[in-house]
Structure formats: structure tokens, C-alpha cells
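Data availability (excerpt). The following record was deposited with the supplementary files.
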Amino acid sequence: MKISELPPQNVWNPFEKITEVPRGSKHEEKIIAFMLNFAKEHNLEAKRDKAGNILIKKPASKGMEEVQSVIFQAHVDMVCVADEGVKIDFLNDPIPAYVDGDYVKAKGTSLGADNGLGMAMMMAILTDTSFPHGPIECLFTVDEETGLTGANALENDFFNSKLLINLDSEGIGQVFIGCAGGITMTAFFDYHQEAVPANHVAYQFVITGLKGGHSGLEIHKGHANANKIANRLLFLITNKYLARLSEFNGGKAHNVIAPIAEFTFTIDKEYQNELKADFDLFVNEINGEYKKLETGINMALNPIANPDFVVNMDAQRNLTNALYACPHGVYAMSLDVPGLVETSTNLAVVSFRERDESSPQHNKLLKQIQVLTSQRSFIESGKRDIHTTVCQIFKQNGATITSSAGYPGWKPNPSSPLLKIAKDAYFKLYGVEPLEKAIHAGLECGLFLEKYNNELDMISIGPNLFDVHSPNEKIEIKTVQMCYDHVVEILKNIPKII
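Predicted structure:
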């Protein structure tokens, strides 16, 4: 069966079209044009702000003009990741989406259901004439996945509604009423290139096959971090054999638990047998620690030709010490909501890069190693605390630090009138009350609340999505119909303006 033929077709048809439009974060030009053309084709009022955010309006049904206006919101960009060996140009190629039994998946790449499915539901709402409703606005924001920059740049008074429904959640039968705030930290280590020592031979360590996953939604699952594991071996051979690092690259993005990493190094040839024995022991230890979580883990140590250079030892030790000391995972659990992760940190990306030649301190002999981390918390003080902890670890090991502006959390409001409407609507449809939840991830709702002086009443809902931000991402098909019916039932019960 084609994706466009799945029920409800008014959601799946636009979703299939969305998968054909490249829309990686910071490369949203094509999807912006697609959405503006959609509005034009359906004679809907649309506008775009300087950041690229789009607002499309649908007038109220006849006789419903006095009903309160509702705004739906989703982001247009997606995290672009692929399995090793899968060839895809995310700037030009469509996502290879397909139906697999009860799910929609992609062949070896992320699917982009986060948040393409939210977009598709909004497109369905904008064209659905089967039910009466008040005024509707739909906000499509850009560049959410790399720091919510589209929402952060949203122009004041860009929309008029005071009731907001975010469609960026991932669990049917749940209504989200809060989210964590977040911030990123980037550390830079300068290093000199030195000649490979005499009598040294070179190896490459590679770790693949880890589950990775969303650094907020799945941080509590304890998935292995490839950067931490790779550095664990590097730290061992640096201190035991004075192995010399040549290059280290790992991770995918700030909001992805690192699923892959690799580094190249040299070692005195007299230690090769000991190295192989230590590596075998290391593999057994890691497999033993993660045997219940990481069944696809693969580690290899391969001899390679000697590289052109190695990193000076001071820089290598600074890097390995900082990576070893840097925490990763859950930092604190909520004392108010049982089972909720309150604060966490993700050691996201390690990469070698050229220095910024525009810098007045630029030195052609110096190169840089970049380490990207991200921190999340429901409480602002908790976010500052874990962020400062990570910053101090890298500063004390010789790195220079930059931090993003961050974004605020969204404090739950159990007394929300919109929440009651959503819960009643779900009960009417399915005979059970949905769960009230908060999400340990960065929804844009916190920024909207800040921009609109805490005057918005907001909820977030969505169908069942699994393994987002990874090549295993999938949608449970039946829950899309359930979610859309829930949205329609909510709209039918929005009260008139008081």
C-alpha cells in the first residue's frame, strides 16, 4: 500500500509529499516554498517572517465567527541521519519512506515524522470542510532541531490566537503540558600538528551500531554514547602506551545520543600485541555492560597507513581528560513528578576542524578540536547548574567555551482550560482519559509563552512515533487516525470568546 492511501488520506497524502521535499535543519528553502505554494493553491491567507516562519490562516465556518481562535504549530525541519553505507543527499534527495506492516518507516535514514507528520495534520486541518470550527491559524516554524532558532526569532504578534496546540509530541493517549528548557555548550581545544614518532604504526578504532536516539526523549533509557566509549579506549592507550592521537570524530547532532565514533592513532610497534589483548578485553567489557541495551554494537580496531601528523600530547591529554570527566545522561530526576527526568546532559559531537582564520589570534600552526554538548532541565536553576558543571570541566582542561542563548522551559499548568477540553474530547472518542505529561525535550512552547507574556493556554499532542532522530524512526499508522480525530473533536468544542 502507498503511504498516500493510508487512513486518513487527508493527512497521509500531504505527509508523503513532505517526504519528497528536502528539509534538513538550516536548509528549509524548498519546504518553505512548498508551504507557501500550498496556501496559494487553497486560497488561504499566508505570510512569512524574516526568519522563514510561515503563518497560514483559515477563517471560521459560517456562524462560528465568535468561537475562540486556535493556533496549531509544528516545525518544518528534520534531523537528517543515515545508517552507515546508505547513500543519500539530504539536500536534494527525497526520504525513502515506505509502509511496513503497522508502521511507516524509511529505508536506512531518519523519516522526518518529527515533525513532518505535525505539518501534514495542519495541512489536513486547513483543507478539511467536514466539521464546523472557529478561526484557525497554523504556524510552521524553521530550524527547530538545531536550537529552536525559528521560534526564537518569531516576530512579536505574528499570530493572534491565545489557544495553542503544538503537534510535536510522540505519544497517543497523552497530552503534554510542559517541556524542558535547554542550552548548548561548545568547547574548542587548540592543538599543534607534530610528526609521527619513529617506530610508530597506525590504527583506526571505529564503533558503530549503537541505538543513539533523541537526547531528551530517550536519555533515560541508558543508551550507550559512542563518544564516551571511544574516549574510554583512547584514555587507556594514551596513559598506558603513550599512543598518539591523529583525529577523533563522533556523534551526529546536539540533540542525538552519539551512535558512532572513530579515532585514528599511532603506537610504538613494540606494543602491538599488548594493544590487541587490551582491545579484546575492552570489547568484552563494553559488550558485557550493554548486553541488554545495545545488541547491535560493533567495535573494530584496524591497522592503517601512518597519518600525516599526530596531535601534540598536551592537547591530547586535555581532550581525553575532559571527555572522560564530562557527564552524560540523566543528572537529576524530578522530585515532583515520579519517573520524570528533570535534568540531563548529552556529550553530542566531537570533531576536528580548521580554526577561524578571521580571528585576530589565528595561528596557521594551530588547529582545533570541537566538542558540542547540550543540557536540558525543567527548572532554570537546574539547567544553569548542569551547564556550568560541563563548562568548568572543559575550561579546567584548557578549552575555550561558547554557549548558546538557550531556550526556556514550559512550566506545566494542570488547570489549563484547553487541557480539560482535550481530555474530555479524548474520553468521548476512546472511553479513557489521556495521561497528563511533561516532556524532557525542547518544544517551542516555552518560547511562545515568553513572547506572549504568559498569556497563552497550550497543550501538545501527537501520534505514536518511535526512535526519532535515528534511521530506525517509525510511525504507528493507526495512531495517526486517532490523533487527527482527537484534533477535530477538540476544535468542535472550543468555546466562544468570553
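Summary of structural features: The domain at 182-403 is CATH 3.30.70.360 (Alpha-Beta Plaits).
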